[in-house]
Amino acid sequence: MVVWLLVMSAPVLARGPLRASEGDTSGWHLMSPQERLEHQSQLRSLKTLEACRAYQAEHHQRMLARAQAQGQPLRLNRRDFCAHWSADKARQ
Fold first, then answer.
1. Which pLDDT does position 59 carry in this prediction?
2. Would you say 39 and 59 are in contact if contact means Cβ atoms under 8 Å apart?
3. Domain locations in the chain as residue ranges
4. What angle do CA 45, 51, 26 make, to 5 degrees?
5. Crossing angle of helices 49-70/33-45, nearest 10°?
6. What mean pLDDT value characterizes the chain?
7. Which of these, 77, 86, 78, lies nearest to 49 by C-alpha position?
8. pTM of the entire structure?
9. Residue by residue, what is the 3-state secondary structure of 30-76?
10. DSSP at 29
11. Residue 13: DSSP 8-state
12. How confident is the model over 45-76, as pLDDT tens digits?
């Protein structure tokens, strides 16, 4: 039983934990270290692609407002953090 669980969980564990970064989070440079941790925690708690997209849009608007208030450009994310939901669904 234990061996079976380990074998079945290998693909999930190989991907590693979901982790937001400056490469997939708009406004990363505008966030404090604590905000970054909270953002990562929030992303990990999302259960659906729709929830991920909604949170992503909300976060983008907050960071856009913050960037404008500080007179800074908003660096757009290069990767789509929510894309793993689509990839996971395709594998099922």
1. 93
2. yes
3. 41-87
4. 85
5. 160
6. 77
7. 86
8. 0.69
9. HCCHHHHHHHHHHHHHCCCHHHHHHHHHHHHHHHHHHHHHHCCCCCC
10. G
11. H
12. 999 999 999 999 999 999 999 999 999 998 87
